[in-house]
Amino acid sequence: MKKIHVGFLLSYDYEKLKTAIPLVYEYADRIFIAQDENFNTWNGNTFYVDESFFIWLKEIDKDSKIEIYKDNFYIPELNAIQNDTRERHMLSMKMGIGNWLIQIDSDEYIPDFKGFVSQLRKYDFYLDNPKKTPVQISGFHVDIYKYLEDGLLYITNTCKVLLATNYPNYKLARQSYERVIYVNTLVFHESLARTEDDLQTKLKNWGHNHELNNEFLTKWRRASKENYKEIKNVFYLNPKQWKSLGYLPTKDFFEVNKNIKNINIQQITPIYLFFKNFGQWFKYKFTKPKKQKIEFEEYIR
User: Please, what are the domains in the chain?
Assistant: First the structure.
């Protein structure tokens, strides 16, 4: 108990796990990879995984930390986001309550996972009675919008990303609507930064496919090094959530992470973290937030 357990979801973008898994391997106690036994996406489409990927997994797993968890993660009666939530719940139950349950998407990269674990360990007392004191631990996404020939475009405002929990009563993807504790960990999220064919595949199969706005793909196609300052409100759901773009002459997110204070991006300062965490503490200490109901409880096991 009180181990660092990391979970990944295996799907159409499995090749990205070759970047994500090595970043966490050394400081994770165990790593679980959820694979649909029929190779179905949340939307019911079929994906293919080349056998070379499983060979690669065995080669990097020097300490025998990695376990592939196969199950049926597609229920036709559920929509994509409900299947998303269900799979994450089942994966976390497999990982075991009493440990830190960290879920990282295949296109999310944490350059300083050691630092994240160090911050997480300060809250180990929440693992003593998880059901009574459920919490979520959040870092901050640096969203990579688009790769260019000589660099990348990124979103200038960071946003929270729920990475870990002690009690996985998920209601919407990784969101359980419990108290959030923010830590100073940056997660580089490739999000829309992929080829257009790969992006179209993602849009057809991911949990938010029924919520997309009609303009974001047009803006994504147009965005370039020359015009990025003119393009505003580019988020794929509520456009204003991503207000503006920045440009960097590198594709190396390790380099970005080291020089983050010199980049035109929202900075995660100690005072910013203090007020974010104080607000969460106050909210859950003196109010009773409305509990969200899972509408597909009969499918959760």
Answer: 4-265+282-287 (3.90.550)
